Amino acid sequence: MKGVAIVGAGQSIFSRSCGMSVRELSFEAYQEAMAGLNISRKDIDASIICSAPEYDKQRTAAALISEYLELTPAPTFYVESVCSSSSAGLRVAWSLIKSGLHQIVTVIGFQKMSELTSPEAAERMSRGDDIMFGSPLGTSMPAGYAMYARAHMAKYGTTEPDLAAIRVKNSGYGAMNTKATYRKALSLEEILGSDVVCSPLKRYDCCANADGASCIIVASAEKAKKITDKPVWVAGIGMATSELNLSARESLTNLSCVREAARQAYQMAGSGPEDIDVAEVHDCFTIAELMAYEDLGFARPGEGAKLLRDRQTYLGGKIPVNVDGGLLSKGHPIGATGGSQIRTIVKQLRGEAGETQVENARFGLIHNIGGVGTYANITILTR
Amino acid sequence: MGFEKFGMKSFTSDAKVAPFIDHLEQGRIMTTKCRECGKVFFPPKADCPRCLTSNVEWVEINGNGTLLTYTVVNYGPSGFENDTPYILGIAEFEEGVKILGRVSKEINPRDINVGMKIKLVPVKLANGQVIYEMKI
Ligand SMILES: [Zn+2]
Asked: Looking at domain A4-117+209-227, which CATH architecture does it have?
């Protein structure tokens, strides 16, 4: 089972205006990932560069990042599944290593959203829906998740304060994360009183764009043991896809791609939701974290809000979730987000998470979603 | 030609399913059905990937549906800034398909409930574009 390991993981600071170029952001993440490893850049066989290219000013950035980090002539190429690009990058790295083609692969995710004006970013986001049948009606990411939230409320009695409570939890942990964009604990009243963006979702139910980069170094078992004495093993990976059109989907109260990807990952890891000690879930909107509890099996359908009310997803609970503050606090540099989530779990499994350490964490799970529940990547790591 | 006429802001034009727009202009909401396996699609497809055929026919959606979810959009994407607030909804229809569409601005958001019966009707906008709207 222990075939592929993550030997290093890092991220840049995430912020609204970082004062750095994409290559410099990538270096910051790479520097942290490589720290303390018994390898040099010459040992890296291939690099996978993950971003949503429609938001990049720099075209074909893979070569540029490779040049800046002096990884040439090793192969490099882009992998994209919007917000889950860097988890998809890990999937490709895993396959390259399993196949024997490569031994050590680096996965770098980035996005520099501040290079686009807000209207430019909004224009690209609106084309993320079906441009024939969705976008012409004024659909958007928040509108899509808002419709999931409304359907969940109608079916299960979930309330707006239930959703706001997710931001309360995550903002509290975000305040402790020195690399997060938003480092202020928010009250339930502040969240409920914020502007309604797409009902029932308010400003503070939504994550914000950010600039940032992430980096993970992936290696074969044979190499991993020589590179570090703290390898973290890829126990299970799963990936699945839902229809792009919300109207073509079976359910509007859960994400079917998450259920399928989780099934694959649990099966490969030989584990289940009860075995997971700590999780990072893709809280691009508060409702997304709530549905994740249910789709990952941490709670039964409709009981996600109760899991949080019982404080089971806080530190000290049954399954602490997003103890780094989540996307809601860190900000969401699209291509970098999955790698940042993976970094948090790697630190947890190595016992390096400081004041947010989950005691004796053995299994960690990463839930990274692209689009409005369109692409799901579930990764289970162990030490 | 065809899809440049759909929606408040269109993004593309040519498609084999362009008759969808012609029907809409004539006041009918139509979609496609595979003549071989009988599958009704929405959005309409010109092809059935199950039967590997393009032998599809246009069938009418009568518009009687049940609202599954909705949202009042206060901040719209670019090109929709002057249209806000507007309401998006997804409803399920008697033909077994779900459709995402606008909920009529004539309806007060306070009167909207998940599970309510709606009628999907074609609408021609002032600028000549066509859409469909859910009405009570
Ligand atoms: Zn067919």
From this structure: 3-Layer(aba) Sandwich (3.40)
Given A18, A50, A83, A207, the catalytic residue: A83
Tens digit of pLDDT per residue, chain B (136 long)?
Answer: 799 999 999 999 999 999 999 999 999 999 999 999 999 999 999 999 999 999 999 999 999 999 999 999 999 998 998 999 999 999 999 999 999 999 999 999 999 999 999 999 999 999 999 999 999 9
The CATH number given to whatever domain includes residue B11 is: 2.40.50.840
Please tell me the distance from the alpha carbon of residue B9 to that of residue A358, in angstroms, as a whole number.
49
Residue A109's nearest CA partner among A363, A381, A366, A374 is: A366
Q: Do B70 and A135 touch (CB under 8 A)?
A: no
Q: Which amino acid is at B104?
A: S
Residues of chain B neighbouring A123 (CB-CB closer than 8 A): 77-79
For chain B, what is the domain count?
A: 1
Q: What is the 3-state secondary structure (H, E, C) of B71-129?
A: EEECCCCCCCCCCCCEEEEEEEECCCCEEEEEECCCCCHHHCCCCCEEEEEEEECCCCC
**Interface pTM, i.e. ipTM:** 0.97
Quick one: pLDDT band at residue A1, thresholds 50, 70, 90?
very low
Domain ranges of chain A: 4-117+209-227
Degrees (nearest 5) of the Cα angle A283, A87, A13?
65
What CA–CA distance (Å, rounded) separates A183 from A334?
19
Is A83 tagged catalytic?
Answer: yes
Looking at residue A2, what is its pLDDT? 57
Q: Is A282 a catalytic residue?
A: no
Ramachandran category for residue A325: left, alpha or beta (phi over 0 → left; psi -120 to 50 → alpha)? left
Q: What is the pTM for the complete model shown?
A: 0.97
Full domain range(s) for residue B97:
3-135
Instruction: Work out how many CB contacts closer than 8 A connect A with B.
Output: 119
